[in-house]
Specification:
- There is one protein chain.
- This protein is of the alpha+beta class and about 180 residues long.
- It has two domains: about 1-65; about 75-180, Cupredoxins -  blue copper proteins (Immunoglobulin-like).
- The protein has three helices and nine strands, in the order αααβββββββββ.
- Strands 3-9-8-5-6 form a five-stranded mixed beta sheet, with no helix packed on it. The protein has a four-stranded mixed beta sheet with strand order 2-1-4-7, with no helix packed on it.
- The longest helix is centred in the first third of the chain and has 45 residues, at about 1-45.
- It binds copper (II) ion.
- Copper (II) ion (CU) binds near residues 171 and 176.
Length: about 180
């Protein structure tokens, strides 16, 4: 009884096992073949693609990005003696964030006025006028940034041309300003 059952079970198991192995091998080889065909197809496509890309389409793709930078909503500004360097100069109208870091060795400030104050007279020698301060005399500025300090200025600006500057005596004239546009 047990002797006759065991061989038939063995045969059944062997059949199942063989079927599974054959199925596995077929599936695996099919997948492997598919994979190889896919890869060779990709490789075959990949070979001609780079040469046209580097020869033709690549410059035309890069051209719009470089000729027409997208306006942004935030920028970092590095300032020091005697410079003011923004990471962007074309902004999108609305809330704009300036993250200003004083990398210099003396105190500086960060003031935004509309237009170009160059050549105007401020309230003290060596300063330019801040009459075009956005939103009134106290409109967006960071009055004091210590050496090594980073401060954030958030301003809501409509479309226009603006000047950001440090208006400590002599600093504007020394080069601490840049113009930017909001569109
Ligand atoms: Cu300054």
């Amino acid at each position: 009884m047990t002797v006759s059952t065991n061989p038939s079970q063995d045969t059944l198991f062997k059949t199942i096992a063989l079927t599974m192995v054959v199925t596995f091998v077929v599936v695996a080889s099919t997948l492997l073949l598919d994979h190889m065909i896919d890869r060779s197809a990709v490789d075959a496509q990949a070979v001609p693609t780079p040469s046209p890309t580097s020869a033709g389409p690549s410059p035309s793709v890069a051209a719009p990005a470089s000729s027409a930078p997208q306006p942004v909503r935030a920028a970092t500004v590095e300032e020091g003696e005697m410079y003011l360097r923004p990471s962007a100069s074309d902004f999108k109208a609305g809330v704009i964030v300036f993250v200003v870091t004083n990398g210099g060795t003396i105190h500086h400030e960060f003031v935004i006025v509309s237009g170009d104050p160059a050549g105007t007279t401020g309230d003290a020698p060596g300063r330019v006028s801040e009459v075009n301060h956005i939103g009134g005399p106290n409109g967006p500025e960071i009055g004091d940034i210590a050496p090594g300090e980073t401060k954030v200025l958030t301003a809501t600006l409509p479309a226009g041309t603006y000047t950001a500057m440090c208006n400590l005596p002599g600093h504007f004239a020394a080069g601490m300003h840049f113009q930017f546009t909001v569109e």
